[in-house]
Specification:
By secondary structure, this protein is an alpha+beta fold. 16% of the residues lie in helices and 31% in strands. The longest helix has 16 residues.
Length: 308
Amino acid sequence: MSGPGAGFEYPVQEASWLKRDVLLFAHSIGCTADELHFLYELHPNFKVFPTYPIILPFKRTDQEVIDFLARNRAVPIPNIPKFDPTRLVDGQRSITFLKPLPPTSLNKTFHINSKILGVYDKGKAGSVIDTETTLTEKQTGDIYAKMIGSAFFVGQGNWGGPKGPSTVNYPPPQGKRPDAVHVLQTDAQTAHLYRLNGDYNPLHATPEPGQRMGFGGAILHGLFSWNVACHGLLLTLGGSDPKNMKEYQARFAAPVRPGDKLVTEAWRTGSFTDGWEEVRFITKIEGGKVVLSNGRALMKCTGVKSRL
């Protein structure tokens, strides 16, 4: 970890949530009434959907809407240019699940610790900031999740910074039918529901920011599609049980617009590490572009056998 900005630590933030928050999250990413363990707080096996920690750096302790742009301008990173957060999109996200979250944070204190892994100049296309974030319980020191994210600042490159390392790719197998397919239809209200989790970026609520960025109007949250794909994998291959997924990641390849139908295709590889099978996947718009690439998860699959 070297280069301008690397090692910089953001101020520690507190995170909190209620049962209603995790119910909203599960509903907003497509969990349905046949998965009451995610949607009904009195279910005997009520659980938090495993990717919920990804929303907490946005939500923190808020129970009210916040000014997304003001918050993202709040902490400058030393020795790098001041990037414009109104031209920010997700690049790639990964999460490692270390401990299941309790249904509510009441009577516990959780901290969000974030540090910069690197800031990279991609030329005319823009710049990338890689950040590692952990969700930790203050009293015990237990880490519940570790997340790595790449933020892409559109058209904000050519400042003389390092180009950054090449990334590891996890392409889907060629010429093989997927072992599992999950489909979700979005609509004009999809982003307006998802943003209530705490991600209030105007890009997903009103057309003007997307028009300025060349998207033609509002687009869905990248993390909405990312969470939907994870739900699809867990539902079709993992028995809808959070304990059957250890790691999950995907790269954001293209924008998703309200009304697009998301199709996630997954392949079991038959390759195991410590009992966890590698699963590769892509998510695409039905009849159109791939929107999530480089998809990879480590799972204990309870569903269909590998076709590889």
